[in-house]
Structure formats: structure tokens, C-alpha cells
Amino acid sequence: MSELRSVWLQELTWEDVADYLQEQDIILFPIGSTEQHGPAGPLGVDSYAAISVAEDTARKTQVLVAPPLWYGDSPHHLGFPGTISLTTETLVAVAKDVIRSLAKHGFKKIILLNGHKGTNLAALTTACRGLHEYELPDVFLALADPLFLAKGISHIKESVEHHAGELEISHVWYKYPSLIKAAKLPDTQVDVRTIMSDFVHNDLFGKGGDSIEVFWNSAEQRKFAPSGSFSDSSKASPEKGKIYHEYMVDNLSRFVEWLKKYDGIIGND
Amino acid sequence: MSELRSVWLQELTWEDVADYLQEQDIILFPIGSTEQHGPAGPLGVDSYAAISVAEDTARKTQVLVAPPLWYGDSPHHLGFPGTISLTTETLVAVAKDVIRSLAKHGFKKIILLNGHKGTNLAALTTACRGLHEYELPDVFLALADPLFLAKGISHIKESVEHHAGELEISHVWYKYPSLIKAAKLPDTQVDVRTIMSDFVHNDLFGKGGDSIEVFWNSAEQRKFAPSGSFSDSSKASPEKGKIYHEYMVDNLSRFVEWLKKYDGIIGND
Amino acid sequence: MSELRSVWLQELTWEDVADYLQEQDIILFPIGSTEQHGPAGPLGVDSYAAISVAEDTARKTQVLVAPPLWYGDSPHHLGFPGTISLTTETLVAVAKDVIRSLAKHGFKKIILLNGHKGTNLAALTTACRGLHEYELPDVFLALADPLFLAKGISHIKESVEHHAGELEISHVWYKYPSLIKAAKLPDTQVDVRTIMSDFVHNDLFGKGGDSIEVFWNSAEQRKFAPSGSFSDSSKASPEKGKIYHEYMVDNLSRFVEWLKKYDGIIGND
Amino acid sequence: MSELRSVWLQELTWEDVADYLQEQDIILFPIGSTEQHGPAGPLGVDSYAAISVAEDTARKTQVLVAPPLWYGDSPHHLGFPGTISLTTETLVAVAKDVIRSLAKHGFKKIILLNGHKGTNLAALTTACRGLHEYELPDVFLALADPLFLAKGISHIKESVEHHAGELEISHVWYKYPSLIKAAKLPDTQVDVRTIMSDFVHNDLFGKGGDSIEVFWNSAEQRKFAPSGSFSDSSKASPEKGKIYHEYMVDNLSRFVEWLKKYDGIIGND
Amino acid sequence: MSELRSVWLQELTWEDVADYLQEQDIILFPIGSTEQHGPAGPLGVDSYAAISVAEDTARKTQVLVAPPLWYGDSPHHLGFPGTISLTTETLVAVAKDVIRSLAKHGFKKIILLNGHKGTNLAALTTACRGLHEYELPDVFLALADPLFLAKGISHIKESVEHHAGELEISHVWYKYPSLIKAAKLPDTQVDVRTIMSDFVHNDLFGKGGDSIEVFWNSAEQRKFAPSGSFSDSSKASPEKGKIYHEYMVDNLSRFVEWLKKYDGIIGND
Amino acid sequence: MSELRSVWLQELTWEDVADYLQEQDIILFPIGSTEQHGPAGPLGVDSYAAISVAEDTARKTQVLVAPPLWYGDSPHHLGFPGTISLTTETLVAVAKDVIRSLAKHGFKKIILLNGHKGTNLAALTTACRGLHEYELPDVFLALADPLFLAKGISHIKESVEHHAGELEISHVWYKYPSLIKAAKLPDTQVDVRTIMSDFVHNDLFGKGGDSIEVFWNSAEQRKFAPSGSFSDSSKASPEKGKIYHEYMVDNLSRFVEWLKKYDGIIGND
What we know:
Six copies of one chain form a homohexamer.
Chain A: H1 14-23, E1 26-31, H2 45-61, E2 64-65, H3 88-105, E3 109-114, H4 120-134, E4 140-144, H5 146-149, H6 166-175, H7 192-196, E5 213-214, H8 218-224, H9 238-260
Parallel strand pairs in A: 1-2, 1-3, 3-4
């Protein structure tokens, strides 16, 4: 197959897409958020994460990327100006509609790439599980996310990573250097264990011991994390961002290449 | 007020937005689509229209723009690969959630900018009317669209404008020149009157005589407009696109400036 | 075909309807509203418009009419006693259920006749577009409305027509003379441009220049239009109502006759 | 209070309604159906029942009536041409929207009058119970229906009354004589006990012994009641219709008069 | 067929259920509530009623029982601590999902057993009617309830039976003796006629004269029935509970045996 | 506080609950599933897990337990007879209604105890997050699950634990010995990595390396795990079940005791 004019679906004509579908049926769908990321990170951090990993993976593996969704499930960040949150129900509906449209055209392997945004996972899981059981049994659906895609490289960080942490800030810094306010990177960390019990953990990349989930809302978050950041991101750097980014692109590319050749049970029933 | 670091909300930190809200409460929200635009236009035509007018208006008037929505209400285009359609209900839900989030932060004047995408209007109208009556009586909501914003300049086109027509192709050509396949611009037009009666009109910018709306679906469209384009866009040009674009930016900027000083009944009840 | 016992479906037995369907598959579905129409017009103005045009068109063309829907999408009129408003979502649901039922029996050409009630259009369009794409591809769905059906005759009015305007008042006056309080016809007009910017137009039948939609709610409307009427209807008359009514009946009848012979793409895919 | 110009809300102006609300806060809301009623009865039987009882009660007690809803919850009749059924969910939504609108204007005592249509009761009960608990605790909501309002007079019938039975046919015959095809009145009865067990009863007005509800659908009904009627209505007559009608009007009027003076706990909490 | 290891589905393995389905396709689904039942009855009265009748019927007839639903539609009891109410919409959804799952496995005859809980009936009826018409035409659905199943034995009670009445208290007393606080059984009765008009009846098992339904909410109920009980249950006894219970088990067993041999129209279309 | 008559809410009267609320505001809400657990485990395994941990924790800490929900989100198990699955949306609705009811009575600290059922987590998280942000900011909501509550003890198992694994089988065996068919315990394991890529892990309790979620449906599961079990549970034993159970009860009890004294930010805003 000759090189794609663009990996972004929205830049192509429908005839380009028809040509692509003659040879390949994989597409990436990046989902981010518009939510506060502390005093140093732009509101689009999660979207930039999803967009950049999707785009670089797509270039490397020559598959298409659907236009990004800039909005996620972020109610607990609504205490900070600029956060835009869909409800979980709306995010489910958007994800389902996008996947249905892609499936109708013959995209049979669809990879959702979520951008370091744990609270999106309930909606995206709901959408994929429901569609695959009840509507699209012959479509392979997968969901990738930095929190799980980059476990193996998380040791490069020097601090505890929670919201607006060292790795996700480094990531954006590497790919979109002008968007990080380096002078404002916080060097303190919120200790959620004092607020939500010992069963809640500070590090999203941690191995975790016993845990219980405790739910907090936007007003509470504004109180216990008044800067918006939960994390010490003073050790963030574009260099770390590069390592982290490339690790994820490598992982996801490996998965895409595996999927190109896949003819197992899933989606082929 | 000093110049904004960026007009795009997603590029700012929450503190930047908080600063902005000290002085201004207007924001633009661009809504496009990912739908086929014939053999020459990219799938993102409507999104590019919304994004470019929003961005240039925002720069000119120094107001903010929310991240764009790349998906619209495009079921009748689903017969062509690459089209991604939300249902009307989903689009209503997204628009409501975005507006609610913005309103919560104190954006009291929100302008939806739809990108030449008539079928989005039912959903966007539903969202705005419902919110303003039942939830957000104190928020001024407006909805702009090239079809109505550019009536006064539509005389520059030389052909009948329907889907993928001369003006919208020119628009993208001017702002994103690499995305138009000039060699593929169609020079024929679908005559919808022969298919849907004399009460249906060929020109979306036309003054219209008596009319009745007839609904068609994606399979039917694929039949009566097999190239995807309804319009002769062979007269499209970046030059026309520039005139059209600037006319819309001027109009919308005029509205924004009026709105900055507005203290009438709407949203102030 | 012998003359129908009644054009109203609800007056017939199911066997009458079965007989009709042997020869014809067209039906009209009138949708109105129950909303204030100023000090002179009854709350049912829009419903009477839909009912009378449907009934007279049906008699002229010998097609059936479904029972009318007396409720529409009128939230912005809820500030005046007697207005009954469905939400947009409910109106979509009702329209879909009625159309589905009719289609199940073999009505393959269904014409919604809305009664001069612009805000109904979002819901009715949503219902028709969604059904024709996803559920009823083989049913021809059309939507007529005085605002578009009577453009060619609107020159008979002598004043600017907005809510409760000269033409719709004349219409009811002609068909239901006892329901207009002639002594209370207002002779002033609300200038919406002063309230909602120059981009909003005063005349619903106007050709319109550049425009932007601004949304208002019931509390605001009560303030800027305290009588309920937006329009000077002092020039209304039964004579104008007759001309307007017959023009619409003629137009719609012409469409029905065209549709009787139609075997084009729409609904026949 | 002087006599009302009309008891029908839709025939009044909003000022008339405002005047009424100065003195009275009761309104009737008639709900019918459009569903087959055998070879002799028109599709609108249930609607005519609701409309006529509401109108005559309103005249007698000088209270208002909201415009009728012509559509009900009739899925099991969809096997016969002309039946139009809302889903239960849609009927709930319509009833809630109408009641909410009326309550907003100050109607504090709202009586739903259902027209001999048992399957509507689930939806109407759902709407009233939900609204009164969660949204409108200070509105008195009541639901009347011929099946319960006329128990005391049902002895005048000479046959077993089920769908399209002697009493409801008589009722329409009395009020709308031209709509009954007397020559087609069936003289046989469907014995539902042979089809659905001894725990299902033949007479809707019966006292009933032990019972279990069995659900049937439109295809099944078409089989076991091929004429559409379940009942022997050969003994129907306008005279019986008059007795039955007046009995219901008397009962409902008695309730309205009681309600005018009511200041007990319900709706006054 | 050999005796079942257990009549409760949840105690069996899927292989046990597969074996059962080789020979039988009937299942009972008990639905209760968690709502106050006065000072003497536990919150689970309705659930215990459903569970015990289902279990004993199942043992007697050797059919399966699905796990019970402990929550019902009880908004009007929310004024008393401990009541847990689903909305009607949620109860519809649960009932539909459970029935759909059972039908998928080949249970073709499903009997919902509601536990003396009239307000559940709207939801359960809505679920069954909708499913049988639109989704599961080949499944026989029935709905039983003590209020209708035990009419013929209700004469054993000595008092007027409304909420928390003599029979339902006796029932639980017989089956779960430790759960009734005998010393707290009320000996007074709420006269609903004084509160809601003569058209509302005191005895749920009564034959009823003319009636109109009046809706009350939880705050109102707390006022007119401050103990939670509407009924004099001082005559309740385990002995009466035994008679009542066995009567229902006998009736339901008779229905199950009839259904085992049923091959009529319902569910076989 | 004297010992509770019962820890189960449904066994108490409303007055008992009112008394409890004078002193304590914590309640546990157990949520399970009815889904196949291989040839040896009963369909109720997850429900029994939730019920037993909730009950024993409640007894130990003297707090109340709400009636259990026997149904969960189990679409991928619908290929095996007996599985009953709610949709994710329905489970969200049930959880929200139950929590709303409890909160209305003054339960301010509500702990959902899910029974080893990962797919329930999307719904339960959605319910809790949404309620705490938009409706119940002053209620502390927590979600516990064996998968996270018992990490620290998972080393006692000798095999890879996935669906129907050694630990959950041991758990039921310990608490409900008659419900495990010991002779049928499988001694083989499904290797999901061969089916869904190296990015999917075999052990639910594992520490996990990089991972990507792949969604499978019921038909696919029936193919790759024809016995229903994914796991070798031949090493299961009541003794292990006891250790595992007590570890969870201890952990949850520790959390409950901490919560009794909690007066931090969450739920106190």
C-alpha cells in the first residue's frame, strides 16, 4: 500500500477512505478531555496525549485516525474554570455513534485511544461492551490508555503520579512545548490517603495494595487540591515525555501490527 | 485587556481562563461534522468552516473559543465511507453538556458556530432552546451558521449551492489549500426538484418560493448523488473562499462586539 | 374510488381504512400547538391552522387525515396562562410513534402538516430524518408548514408578521370566526432587533439578510411582549384568511396529487 | 362567576384563562386512543368517550377542559389498519408535559379523564404518581375512567363487555350517532378464558374472582378476534349510551363539586 | 423428570439449568419491595410474600424460580426510614432485562409474581406488554399478584385491608414468624374516603363501587397515616397467613400446571 | 448502642431503622450477579460473595445492610443458560435509585459492596460519580470489590485467577458448601493471551504489565471457554475461602470503623 496522504480521516475525501478500506480495516479513535491540569498544564492535556499517540502510531503503522473527541467525563474538575465535562451517559452515546458509523463503512477493528483520563473508562467500556454484545458482534473493539499502556516505563518518573502528574505533563511538554508553563510546575503533592482513607492510593501507576474506591466531587476537589494539581510535577521534562511517548507509540504500534494479522475468535464469530 | 496567549481554551490553563472571566464572559463554540463532501472536498469541510471562522473571529475580537466538535448530525451521508454521524439526540446531549459546563464557570454569552451543516440545526436549536427555558435562563445563547451568516455575500458564487457547493469548497480551499483536490471538482449538479417535487429547492442560499421539506436517507442519496456532491463546484476558488470567509468573520465579529456591550433582556432576566 | 365517508381516520372503522389502503397510501398528519396568541387569538391558533388546511386538502384530494396533535413545542410561551408545551424530546417521540403506526399499516407516504409553529420544526425534522434513515427507509416523509407553504402569498399582508401576526389571525378568523376577539387585535409590533441584535429579523415571512439565531425564554418574552402578541394584527381580516388558506390548500393539494403518481427514489429504495 | 365563553381551553385566549384562574383552579384533561373498535365502531371510540364526558361535565360544573389527546397506548391493536399507538413511555411523557404546563399556570387540581382504555392506565398512573411525588407535591391529581366511574350502572348492559362492547358502542352511538355502523354490530363474543386460562375474565366490568394477567400482542389478537371486536354489541343502543353517559357525567360532576371545596391534605402539603 | 436440586436458579450451575430446559420452559420471577409496613411489619413484607409463594409453588410444581428483586416502585412510602424505591422507569428496565435474559435461554413461559404491591403493577405491565408486542412475541408472559390471586379467600380477614393489612401481615407471620412485632400491631384504620373523596375505597380486596384514583405522595402519607399502617391488623394471625398462603400457592400451581400443557395462541404465534 | 435485631434492613421495621439513624448513618449495599460460573459454581457466586462479606462485616461493625441486588452487568455470559444480565444503563439506574432512597432517610455514608464482578464496576462508578457531583454532594459514597479488597491475600491461591477462579469458588465453598460441585471443578485454564493479544492478562489479581482492553461477547466466550470457567479451580478449598473471606471482612470492617469517625472533606462540603 502506498503511503497515506494523511492519517487523519477528516483530511481525506470519501474516495480516499474507500481506497484505504480495500486494503485495511483498522482505525484509531482518540478521546481526550478538556479539564484543568493545574497551574502549568493546559486544559487540553488529555486530548493532546490521545491525539499525539494516535497520530504517531498511525504514521508508523499506516492506519487511519478518526477526528479526536476533545471532551471527556470530568465532573470532578468542574470546580476549575475551563473544564468542560460530558456526562457519562453522553460520552457513551458519542462513542457508540462514532463506532457505529465506522463499523458501517467496514472498519472492523477499532481501537479507542483514551488520553490518560481514568474517568473516561467507565463510559468507553460501557460503549464497547454493549456494542460488541448487542449490535456489532463482528467488530473487534479495543481500548488503550496511557495508565495501562505505559506501566512498564512508569519507573522513569521520580514522583508520585496522580492528576496533572510528572508523566502526563512531560508528555505534553515534549509534543507541544509552548503549552506548558514550566515556571508554574507545582512541587507538592496532595496526599489523598489522609482525605479518603488508607484504602485509596496516591499513585495512579502504583501497584496498589488493598483498595476501596471513594468518590469526590468538584467542590471537594477544589478544597483539597486548590491548585488543581494533585501531583508534584517539578521533575517533569520534555526528555521524560519523549521516552514515555515513544514507549506508548511502540506498544500501540506493536498491537496494531498484531491486529493487522489477527484472525482469531474476537470479531470473527 | 492584554492580548490572549491563545484564543483556544484547550491551550490555556485554568488560571488563564479565570483571568479572562474577570473581564469577559463571551465564548464561541464551533461545531462541524465529519461527512463526505464529494470527490474533491475532505470529510472535515464543515468542521474546518466552523473552526476557521471561530478562530479568526476570536482573534479579531479577543474572545475565547471552546474546543471544536468534529462530529455532527449526518445520517443521510452514511452511504459514503468516512462519514461519522451522531444521532440528533446525541448531538443535543453534547451541546447541552458543553454549554452547561461553560455556564457553570461564568460564561454568560455563548455563541454556537455551526459549520455550514443544516442538519445540525435541529439538534443545536433543541439544546439552546431547552437550556435557556429550563436550566440557564441567565445565559445568552446564540447560534450562527454560514447559511444565514453569509446570505449577503452569496451572490459571488456562480453556481447553485447545495451540498459540497462552490462556496463551502472555496472556503476550505482558502484556509486549508492542501485539502481540496482541485482536479476532482465536479461540474454537474443534482436537480433535487426532479426527485423530491417542485417544492424542494436546489439552492441552499436561494430566496426560496413555496416549499415543502422532503426527507431522504443515505441509500437514496447514494443513488441520486453518486459522487457525493450535489453541486457544481467547478467555479470554486481560494479567492472566493477568502471573500466568503472574511464576510462571515466580519459579521460574526460585529455581533460579538455588539454582545460585549449588551445588557438587554435576554439572559438578564 | 368512491368518495370517502370521512377524511378523518378517527371517524372511520378499521375496515374503512383497510379499504382505503387498497387504493391509496397517502395520509396527512396535522400538528398544532396550544399556546397563547395574544389578546385576540385563541390558544389553539396553530392547531386550527393545521386542522383546517389538512381537512380541506384531504377533501379536495380524497386522502385521509390522522387525528390532530393539539400540543407542540412552546416553552417560550409558558409565561402566559393556558400555554401547554411538550418538550422537544416528547414531540419527537409522539411524531415517531404516530408515523411508525401508520407505516405499519401500509401508509407509505406521510405528510406532516405543521400549523404555523416554527419551534415545532426541530422536533418534526428530527423525527422524520431519524425514522427515514434508521427505521422506515421505504416510507416517503414530507413536512409542510404555512411559513414555507405560503411564501408566495405573504405579500397580501400589510404588516410585519411575527408571532400572532396578521396572516395567522386572519386564517383562524376565516375558518373559525367566533374564536377571534376582533376588538382586541393589537396595532403595535415588537421590534426584536432592539432586543436581540440586527441579526434577528422581525418578519417570519421576510426574505432575510444575514442572520444569527438568538434564543429567548418565557420570562423574557413576557417582558418584551407583554400582550403575548409580537405583531400588529389590526389589518387582519377573514378575507385575507380565505386567500391565505386557499393558497395553502392549493399548494398542498398540488403536492398530494404529485405524490399520488410518484415512483421516484425516495421511499422506494 | 359568569358563564365561560367555552369550556375548551384551546378556544379561549390567554386572558380568558387568566381570568378563570382568578376564581377556579380545576381542569379536566381528556385522553383517548385511536384504535380499532371492530366492524361497527370508529377508531376514535375511546377519544369520543373522553371528550364527551369531559365536555358535558365541564359545562355542568363550569370548569375548563384541556385539548384532548387522540392517541393512547394501544400496541395490541396494531394488527388492524388505522390503529395509532404511542408507546407507554411516550404516553407518560406527554401526560407529564401537559400536567407540568397546566401546573405552572396555577391549575392546582387536574383530573385526567381516560376514555375506556385500560391499557392507558399504566402510563397515566406512572405520570401522575411520579409527578406528585417528585415534582408537583402541591397539585391534586386524579384519574377517572369509565371502567371504574360507571361500575354502578354497568348492570344495564345485557352482554359481556370487553373490547368494543355494548356500553362503549352505545356511548358513541348516543353522542355521535353517524359514527356507528349499526348493521355491522357483532353478535358474538370472544371467550378469552379458552385462550388465556380460567384466571382471565371475559367481562371488564365484572366483579372478578381470582385472576392472573396474561399479555397478548397484536398478531395474536388478530387471530383470536378477527373482527376486532371481543364482544357481542348487538344489544347496544343510543338509549343505553345516554344512561351510561349521564351516569358518568353525574359521577364526575359530583367529584368536581367536591373538589372545588376541597382543602384536605392532598396537594396542600 | 427427577426432583430439582433446588428450585432457585441462583443455586444451580448453568449445566443444571441447561438440563432443566431440555424438559421444561417455565420460570417464576418474584418481585417485591423494600418499603415500610407499619410498626409491626418488616420492610421486606412484599418481597417475602413474593419469595414464599414463588418458592412453594415452584417446589410443588417442580419449576424454577429466578432470584428475587427486593426493590419495587414505592415513592409514596419514602417518608418512612428504610423504604427503598425504584422509579417506575427503572423497574420497567429491570423487569425487561431479566425477562430478555430468560427468554434468550429458552424460557418461553415466564410468570412474574408480584408481592402484594399494587404500585408495581404499572411498571410490570408496561414491561410485559411492550416486550410481548415488540420484542418477544413468542414468549408467554403472565403477571400474578396476591391482590388478584387471593380474591376468593379474602373473606377470611375480619378487617378492612389496605396497606400493611391483616392478610399480608398474617402471611409474613406464618412464613417468617420472627419478623412480625405482634405487640405493635395497630388496631385502627385510616379512612381514605375522608381524605380523597367517596370515590376512593378503603379495602384493596373490596368489590368496589364507582371509583376515581387520587394520587398521594410520601409527605402526605406520613401525615394521614403517621404509623405507616393504613389498616387495623390486630386480627392478623399465622393461622390466617397459612390459609391465605396456601390458597395462593394452590391457585398459582393450578395455573402452572395448566401452562405446562398450554399450546394455544399466546406465545405461539 | 444495643445490638441490632438484624443487620438486614428488610428484616427490620421502619421504626427500627429510625432508631438506628439516631446513632449511625452508615449502610452497606451488596451487589452481585446471576451469571454462569462454570460447571462447579452456582449462578449466584458473585451475589453470595457480596452478601456474605456484607453480612459478616455488618455484624462485626454493627451497621446495616440493604437488601442485595441479585442481578449485574453480565452480557458476555449470556451464552450460558441461567445468566441474567442487566444492561449497564439499567444497573446505573438501580444503583442510583437505591442510593437516592437511602440518602433521603439520612444514610450519609453508603458503601457499595460489589461481589467479584469486574463488569459491574463501570455502572457502579457511573452511578456514584454522577450522584456525588450532581445530586448528593453531602453523601460519602464508596465502592469495594474483592478484586481490590483482597489483593493482599491473593497469594494464597495456587493458580491463575480469572472468571470462576480458585478464590471465588473457595469463597462460596466456605460460606455455602452445598452449592459447589466439587467433582466438577475444572483443572484447566483459558489462555486469553492467545486470543486477545499479549496485552491482555490472564490473572485478574495479577500486577499486570502493559495492557490494552479487548472486548469479547457471549458467543465468543462460549467458543473460547466452553465450560464457562476460564480458570483452573481444582485447588479451591473451603479453607482458602475462609482465609479470603475473613481477610475481606477484616479490611472492610477496618474501613467501616474508620468511616464511623470520619469528618473530613468528602460528603461534608
